[in-house]
Amino acid sequence: MSWLDQLAEHVEDLRRAGHLQQNGQSAQALPILDAVLASASDPTTRAYARVQRFGALINLGRVAELAVAMAAAAEAVREVPDPYLRGQMHAFAALGAHLQSNLDRGVTHLVQASRALAAVPERDSETAWGWHDLAMAYSYLGFHGQALIAIEQAREVGAAAGLASEVFAAPGIRLRNAVALDHQGDTDGCLRVLRDIDAELSRYVATDQLRPGSRAVYGYALARRAALGEPTGADAARWLTGGGDSVRTRDLRHLGAVCLTIAGGRPERALSMLQAVPVSAEVLGAPEPARLRSICHASAGDHAAAHAADRYAFRLAALRIDQLRDGYLDGVAARLDAQETHRDPGRYGDETLTDPLTGLPNRRQLERYVDTLLSRGERAAVGVCDVVGFTSVNMRHGRHCGDLVLQRIAGVLHRVMRRGDFVARFAGDEFVLVLPGAGPHQAAEVSRRIGAAATAENWQALVPGTPIGLASGWSEIGAHGRGLSAALAAAAASRKPT
């Protein structure tokens, strides 16, 4: 029995919407899901519809609507203690974070999705598709090895539910792996993977097991081989037609046409096509258009321009690797902090010391931390930081979006602080920063980094039409006998936009 069969309402409507999404027809699935939400009263049915609606908006690239849709899905799932729904929601949330260029948040959702899906006892088709969507999220965020493991799990669970392994071929995972190899200079490795995708296409065509949503992926793999000078027996242009209404399909069609134009000996035309139509950096990675420009220039005989474009593509690929490395370091730091908490429960173990929304220390833990500093005779810079525009967020977008803004700000502050610094949520939209041993110059530098990081966030996608900023002020503790209360008052009085 499918997971859907357990629902109290609209089972066939939801099954039909799911099939449409699996075949790349999210625009047709969306009104079905909206109709279910307009009439359903069962909490589990509504939660499932909310999660699937969130996924449909991701497929359609409607980034401005993702924050509200995710908040609604998360709230609905919280009311239904079901591990499949939780896992599916976090898999979609990871993809949403990727579209919003928030790698840190995306990685967090990946971990949560994997843990939730691993806790699902049933081996049914819905759970198999949950693993499939998690594999897609891993792949888009650059974790190609984990994506292959997750898609294998999808095949295993799907087989137990009677689904053919071809259903979870997921050529997009290997395509993104192939172009990532090329971006890093391993063109031979890229071609090997592209040949494997071509061979797989031949098998699926022979057995009539090809999913419509995979057409553009196979077409692009063929076209990319041709652009690299390796002709194929299949007709790439044929496979680049159809395949659904997703942003991924649209961009693959365009870039595939560019590749075929290169292969046809018209590199100047291919360059103009690249410049005329922008494509999403999330589909095949930001380096892909630059790498195609390099191939165009090389085909035209302009090797200096080809080298410059290749260098740019490589820099973009290296930047992504640096982001992943920074996330790894932050993860190790968080694990060490957790170990320290476990070793010293008398100091940190009280759950009332943590703010439940952001996971940061709260006012009580801040006071204990500062008391410890002062008892050792140490000095520190103390900053008060609050959110400019927060009242407008709550009024225009609601409390859930306000919570998401606070969580995002907490992540920004945690990311830019120095090792050993202390960040707490003090009250409302107010955060307190403690920099042990720091003076005015260090505080000014941290304030600058906070402002730059906050400005770089995509607030338009989270709370459209509502500008978000930060204001901060600084003081000191331990100087002239000043305690925490006096330092906070002085810092608050000196606040200005960062």
Quick overview:
This protein has 498 residues and is α+β, with helices and mostly antiparallel strands. The chain has helices spanning 11-22, 26-39, 43-60, 66-78, 83-99, 103-118, 125-140, 144-160, 171-183, 187-207, 215-227, 236-239, 247-263, 267-276, 281-284, 287-300, 303-343, 345-348, 363-375, 390-397, 399-416, 440-456, 459-462, 484-493, and strands at residues 380-388, 422-427, 430-436, 469-477, 496-497.
Radius of gyration, Cα only, in angstroms?
25 Å
Distance between the termini: 56 Å
Total number of beta strands: 5
Give the topology string: H per helix, E per strand. HHHHHHHHHHHHHHHHHHHEHHEEHHEHE
SS content category = alpha+beta
Q: In oligomeric terms, what are we looking at?
A: single chain
Q: What integer is the average pLDDT?
A: 85
Poorly predicted spans? 345-351
Task: Please describe what this structure looks like.
- The chain is α+β, with helices and mostly antiparallel strands and 498 residues long.
- It is built from 24 helices and 5 strands.
- It has helices at 11-22, 26-39, 43-60, 66-78, 83-99, 103-118, 125-140, 144-160, 171-183, 187-207, 215-227, 236-239, 247-263, 267-276, 281-284, 287-300, 303-343, 345-348, 363-375, 390-397, 399-416, 440-456, 459-462, 484-493, and strands at 380-388, 422-427, 430-436, 469-477, 496-497.
- It has a 5-stranded antiparallel sheet, with helices on both faces.
- A hairpin with a 2-residue loop joins β2 (422-427) and β3 (430-436).
- The longest helix has 41 residues, at 303-343.
- The protein is globular and about 80 Å long.
- The N and C termini lie far apart (56 Å).
- Residues 378-498 form the GGDEF domain.
- It holds the Pfam family GGDEF.
